[in-house]
Amino acid sequence: MKEVPISYVKANQAGIVVFVLLAFAFQWTWLVALLWVIQVLGLVGGGNWNLFVAVSKRLLSRSGTETQAAELTRFNNALAVLFLTLSLASFVIGWSMMGYISTGLLLLAAGAALLGYCIGCTIYYRYKQFIVRQRV
């Protein structure tokens, strides 16, 4: 099973938090769009094209043994893209409040993950349990 160094995962989470906080503080919806591009590139490129991961590869060492399954990392990245897509679609059709709520939920998820609780991991676990129960 392919693994991703946790330092790369944390760099992506920190990048999300910083971009969303800046977008909220200055009401820069274009920054949400840029974050969407960064996350989509990461999803398509398996994390290799994610700006936050690329920067962390240059600045941080891969030392340490803590990793996360690549499948789980991809799932969490897909959730981030989903929330950002909902947010951008809301902003485009003039539903600014829904756009901020969607982006805020992503901020809460990334912030919680940085603090040690991965909401996406819980959703993934419950999803896998559901799939197994359906096969029985």
Features:
136 residues; mainly alpha; 4% strand
Tell me about this structure.
The chain has 136 residues and is mostly helical. Helices cover 77% and strands 4% of the residues. It is globular and about 40 Å long. The two termini are 25 Å apart.
- Share of helix among residues? over 70%
Number of helices: 6
Rounded mean pLDDT score: 93
Strand order of the largest sheet: 1-2
In whole angstroms, the N-to-C terminal distance is 25 Å
Low-confidence stretches: none
**Sheet with most strands:** 2 strands, antiparallel
Spell the H/E element sequence: EHHHEHHH
Counting helices, strands and paired strands, the structural category is mainly alpha
Per-chain topology:
Elements: E1 3-5, H1 6-26, H2 29-44, H3 51-59, E2 67-69, H4 70-92, H5 96-114, H6 119-135
How would you briefly describe this protein structure?
Helices cover 77% and strands 4% of the residues. It has helices spanning 6-26, 29-44, 51-59, 70-92, 96-114, 119-135, and strands at 3-5, 67-69. The model has no long low-confidence stretch (mean pLDDT 93).
